[in-house]
Amino acid sequence: MRRMRNLLLALAAVVLVAVPPAFAQEEEPVVDLMEFIPDQFRTDVADLNGDGIPDLGALPPEGIAGIWDDRVGEVSEEGFLAAVSGSFDQADTGSSLTGPCKGVVISYDADGMSVDAMFDRGGDDPLYDIYGHQKMTRDNPFEVDTAGIIVYYGSSIPATFHNHRWFLTAEGLFKDDGGDPNPRDKNRNAGSVDFGELLPFQFTALIQAKGAWVDGWGPAELPEMATYPEPNCVGEGWVKFVGPNPLLTPPGALAALLAVAGFTGVLFNARPALSWREG
Amino acid sequence: MTMEGTTLKRHPIRGFLWGLITGAGVCLLLMVFSIIPLAIPTLIIYTATAAVLGALWGVFAPPKKPKGARPAASPPPAAA
């Protein structure tokens, strides 16, 4: 009787795990991301893994840096902590991107296969994924492989920003900023960020990020503000860094080690103890 | 409350330090599994809370029993 009950329980567990994914309807993309990719780059990409997101052939040329871009970063621990501790509201689970900025961002794994993508058509609508769902929310974060690459194709058309400044902050991780006088009236850019090359090791985490790009600000660094002078592009949302099993990454292994060692110490080394009184 | 013939030694400092390590480890684990967002204030809150709980554990937890057998009572001083 007991054996039969255990068998039924095991069967129920298998059914619960295996059946729902089989019945889950695979969503069809409602957007063709090719419309956001400039003509000269279209031959470099093709959907190889059939997920509706173009996979990577050749990398686009690296985005052109502005002359006010920060090439050094923070040099002290205090400076770094202050820079990455932005005013983030963790209760805000949504995302936004306002202003004329538009384009597509695609993340790839180390083999150049697409991981995730999002696009914006400009205006006050938020970012969307290819299925038409709002992107960069806490429930639908933009996934980035920490061994992979991000590729972006963006523009501010019809606006053209001059003497502009921008910043990008990811809570607890990084901050970057820059700008350019833009004497050649550029209003589009394409480039890539190779995380596999930049990062010393892989990690996994869910973070909040925000950024702003303001026209006519000048060479002074752009601070975080409640409102920015018009015209501008301002956005914030959630990013999920993905990779191998978190316990196999250095931060995950360290976290597990600390948790196990600490809990063992609390249990066996910190309890009050009785000892026999001498004499 | 102590057993007769015993003394109680409490370990609030050890509890604080081990709690600190536990809090940091648990918080980082939750972060790498993306259960909570990565944020330095969150890490500080988890670590500080666990350190305080560890110190309280080191003071108020049920004490470990004394090791070994009760030592024999010392003999009365010999009469002069």
Percent helix range of chain B? 40-55%
Mean pLDDT across the residues of chain A is: 86
**What kind of sheet is the major sheet of chain B?**
none
**How can the largest sheet of chain A be summarized?**
6 strands, mixed
What is the rounded Rg of chain A? 24 Å
Shape of chain B: rod-shaped
Q: Largest chain-chain contact?
A: A-B, 45 and 51 residues
Low-confidence stretches of chain A: none
Number of strands of chain B: 1
Distance N terminus to C terminus of chain B?
39 Å
Describe the fold and architecture.
The complex is a heterodimer of chains A (279) and B (80). Chain A has 279 residues and is α+β, with helices and mostly antiparallel strands. Helices cover 21% and strands 28% of the residues of chain A. Chain A is built from 5 helices and 13 strands. Chain A is globular and about 85 Å long. The N and C termini of chain A lie far apart (61 Å). By secondary structure, chain B is mainly alpha-helical. Chain B has a domain at 12-60. Chain B has helices spanning 12-32, 40-60; one strand at 6-9. The mean pLDDT of chain B is 88. Classes of the chains: A alpha+beta (279), B mainly alpha (80). The interface between A and B is large, with 45 and 51 residues. Strand 13 of chain A pairs antiparallel with strand 1 of chain B, so a sheet runs across the interface.
In short, what is this structure?
The complex is a heterodimer of chains A (279) and B (80). By secondary structure, chain A is of the alpha+beta class.
Summary tags:
heterodimer; A: 279 residues; alpha+beta; 6-stranded mixed β-sheet; 4-stranded antiparallel β-sheet; 5 helices; 13 strands; 21% helix; 28% strand; B: 80 residues; mainly alpha; 2 helices
